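> call design_seq(struct)
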């Protein structure tokens, strides 16, 4: 088994990056939208630091993911996909990358320009500041963080919607090839052979 992407599948490293980042962003969104309502107890500050630390972790993961993408390439388009769909998907994917970089960078800039004490990444070390205290930079960074999030929501809905459309209506391998292989019966590019015709099946042992 290769870790790299092949001509017809995303490899396990790309899949792990994709789904781990999806889960972390979902958690960051839920916490980010609700943490302002928390009572100002020590837990409030703990939750903020957890949001910031997880956000910085996403930044590192996205940079590593992009490096892996440059090294490992990407699969060929699923056979039968019209060129216009490929182009829209390509633009959407790069916009998603831009936004998942913009979100942590704008959050970090907002935190830096607010003039607060440096936050400690999961309590381990002080994060450096990106800017000295500055109200204009702080407000601009907050606007980017808030609006960037809603643009991300719209893009993710279109992106996930397209993946499900391919799966349920076009019935092609677009979604399956971003998921771990469940069984050798699942073919990579189209419906698999019917049960019993798979020659790779282990012999039946009574
Ligand atoms: C992918 C990474 C991130 C995502 C998806 C994310 C998401 C969010 C969301 C949805 C909000 C609520 C915005 C609103 O009220 O409309 C928020 C608020 C906030 N985020 Fe993030 N965030 C990320 C990274 C970061 C980082 C790295 C930091 C700081 C180092 C940070 C600091 C903050 C702060 C301080 C707030 C509260 C803003 C306020 O005063 O209302 N975030 N975040
Ligand atoms: C239920 C939610 C999601 C589903 C079903 C999904 C599905 C997929 C699939 C099937 C691909 C591969 C497309 C292809 O082979 O052409 C893909 C790629 C991608 N997804 Fe998602 N995705 C989801 C959520 C997200 C989220 C939340 C983000 C980012 C915030 C994201 C970012 C990306 C990016 C950047 C790529 C392009 C990978 C590359 O070209 O390097 N996805 N997604």
């Amino acid at each position: 088994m290769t870790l790299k992407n092949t001509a017809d599948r995303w490899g396990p490293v790309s899949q792990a990056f994709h789904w781990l980042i999806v889960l972390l962003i979902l958690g960051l969104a839920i916490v980010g939208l609700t943490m302002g309502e928390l009572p100002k107890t020590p837990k409030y500050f703990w939750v903020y630091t957890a949001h910031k630390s997880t956000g910085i972790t996403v930044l590192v993961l996205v940079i590593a993911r992009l490096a892996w993408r440059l090294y490992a390439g990407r699969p060929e388009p699923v056979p039968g996909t019209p060129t216009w769909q490929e182009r829209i998907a390509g633009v959407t994917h790069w916009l998603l990358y831009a936004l998942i970089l913009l979100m942590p960078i704008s959050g970090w800039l907002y935190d830096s320009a607010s003039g607060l004490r440096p936050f400690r990444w999961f309590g381990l070390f002080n994060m450096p500041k990106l800017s000295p205290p500055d109200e204009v930079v702080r407000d601009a960074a907050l606007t980017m963080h808030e609006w960037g999030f809603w643009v991300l929501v719209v893009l993710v809905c279109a992106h996930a919607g397209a993946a499900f459309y391919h799966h349920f209506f076009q019935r092609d391998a677009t979604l399956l090839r971003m998921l771990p292989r469940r069984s050798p019966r699942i073919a990579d590019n189209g419906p698999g052979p019917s049960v019993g015709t798979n020659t790779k099946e282990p012999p039946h042992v009574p």
